[in-house]
């Protein structure tokens, strides 16, 4: 556990009644309810569950298992799907899904605001200046509309190859060619920052070479308000291992910004052939999961998570597919297509909710004080003398927790997860 000491904090806990009287010589259970670290996954199944599949037992079971494991979800805002017809965005469906996750105490990231793939086809009828105007208007509209529900965004996606992309013509590649990478990044980040100044804003890419590092350096020199660096590792062609992960961390840690591993894939079937350059070119009729592949996936996932969780700048790890058969039809989820749990699901749950978990009995002294050391995050304090919640982080010498009765506390918080 020594390698994870930076994930923990210690503080004195002062427990008082609602009247302000100290609660002395009382025993409480202090339990972590939500890590500060973001253990995430694509939350795309929340969209059908809260819309056309509302009440569907199959989707309810699937999302229940999602909620049991993760505290952070990526919500899709691909422009060509979110707004298939101009001026008709799928606002209600995304707000329903995002509200569902928020009601269950999960943090949400919108993905992406600007990307050349899955772009809106109706943009193609406009000239480049109008396309740029509409791109910025889209950012302002969506970031403003979801503020308070979604306060984290992948602002621009895969900009390293954006002006070079030649598989098909699209509006975003057009404007990236005309205005240049740096100018486009500056414009879209400025629009997102103006719409929600408190938002966490990411640049995101799969190209983790020196080209990406050089672009980030140029952006920061130009004053682009990048909050965190997004790093994709879709490993359909095999687990990259600790040595490669260490190279990536070394390349990007020098910026001093939080590092988010935003899109991560490890498969539980055969490995994609190494000669495939664009993963999207690998189109096969069936890609089954196998028992030996599932064992391998769980072992690789554990190794990757342990290595990244130990790095002080890494703040988030997001598995891309929750279930098999999603992107590329790959066996890349932690659930099979029938919602049954794979070994990787149980391994992650064991790491996050057992090994990297804090549940301690503490006892207040004559001054109503107790000491707690635990993983940083949100806690619930429960005992016969009442219950309350608090946040444990670095630099807090003393935390005062006001404890109403447990039932009053539940009614006040409305948090179903806190019921005993």
Write the layout of secondary structure elements.
Blueprint: E1 8-16, E2 27-35, E3 38-42, H1 46-49, H2 57-69, E4 72-76, H3 79-82, H4 91-103, E5 107-111, H5 128-146, E6 152-157, H6 171-179, H7 181-195, E7 200-205, H8 210-221, E8 228-235, H9 241-253, E9 259-266, H10 291-309, E10 314-319, H11 343-355, E11 359-363, E12 369-375, E13 377-383, E14 386-392, E15 398-402, H12 406-413
Parallel strand pairs: 1-15, 3-4, 3-10, 4-5, 6-7, 7-8, 8-9, 9-10
Antiparallel strand pairs: 1-12, 2-11, 2-13, 13-14
Nutshell version of this structure?
The protein is of the alpha/beta class and 420 residues long. The chain has helices at residues 46-49, 57-69, 79-82, 91-103, 128-146, 171-179, 181-195, 210-221, 241-253, 291-309, 343-355, 406-413; strands spanning 8-16, 27-35, 38-42, 72-76, 107-111, 152-157, 200-205, 228-235, 259-266, 314-319, 359-363, 369-375, 377-383, 386-392, 398-402.
Verbal overview:
By secondary structure, the chain is an alpha/beta fold. About 35% of the residues lie in helices and about 25% in strands. It starts with 7 loop residues before the first strand and ends in a 7-residue tail after the last helix. The protein is built from 12 helices and 15 strands. Helix 10 (about 290-310) links the parallel strand 9 (about 260-265) and strand 10. It has helices spanning about 45-50, 55-70, 80, 90-105, 130-145, 170-180, 180-195, 210-220, 240-255, 290-310, 345-355, 405-415, and strands at about 10-15, 25-35, 40, 70-75, 105-110, 150-155, 200-205, 230-235, 260-265, 315-320, 360-365, 370-375, 375-385, 385-390, 400. Residues about 405-415 and about 415-420 have low confidence and may be disordered. The longest helix is centred in the N-terminal third of the chain and has 19 residues, at about 130-145. The strands form 3 sheets. The chain has an 8-stranded parallel β-sheet with strand order 5-4-3-10-9-8-7-6, covered by helices on one side. Strands 11-2-13-14 form a 4-stranded antiparallel β-sheet, with no helix packed on it.
